[in-house]
Amino acid sequence: MDSETGDNIKSDHDGAESLKFTPQRGGTLLASRTRTLHSGCKKVNSSFKSPVPSTLNNSVCVDEEIRELQKTLLQLESDITLLESEGVRVHELDLHINLLHEYNDIKDIAQTLLGRLAGLRSVTTRDLYARFGMELDD
């Protein structure tokens, strides 16, 4: 700061005034820092490209996707009608789905335990299946 005025102004040798810069950590002045020059490397200086493909700009793709979804909807509605005509009710399907989730959870736990046991015994999981009389498809 200028001791007389309290401003952040400094005079050059030729009398021109310029702003003083506050030193950063390490003692370098902001004014002495330069920007990184344009690198020849494409990865450094390229603009961001989203990994998600943009289909909003392409109305043909959107129209095709809508047709596919409508086709899928019609197929699902016909499947529902067929199941209802066979006497299957929605709450029965929900119960069946919940039981399948429970079965899969129990199977995952069993697979984990068999893997750990195989590791402790220094054998393969396949060997344990044979030892316990289980099929590999179980």
TrEMBL record:
Signal peptide: none annotated. Coiled coil: none annotated. Keywords: Coiled coil, DNA damage, DNA repair. Residues 7-17 have a biased composition (Basic and acidic residues). Residues 1-24 are annotated as: Disordered. It holds the Pfam family Swi5. GO terms for cellular component: Swi5-Sfr1 complex; Swi5-Swi2 complex. One of its GO terms (biological process) is double-strand break repair via homologous recombination. Belongs to the SWI5/SAE3 family. Component of the swi5-sfr1 complex. Component of the SWI5-SFR1 complex, a complex required for double-strand break repair via homologous recombination. This is DNA repair protein SWI5 homolog. It comes from Ictalurus punctatus. The lineage of its organism: Eukaryota, Metazoa, Chordata, Craniata, Vertebrata. The gene is swi5.
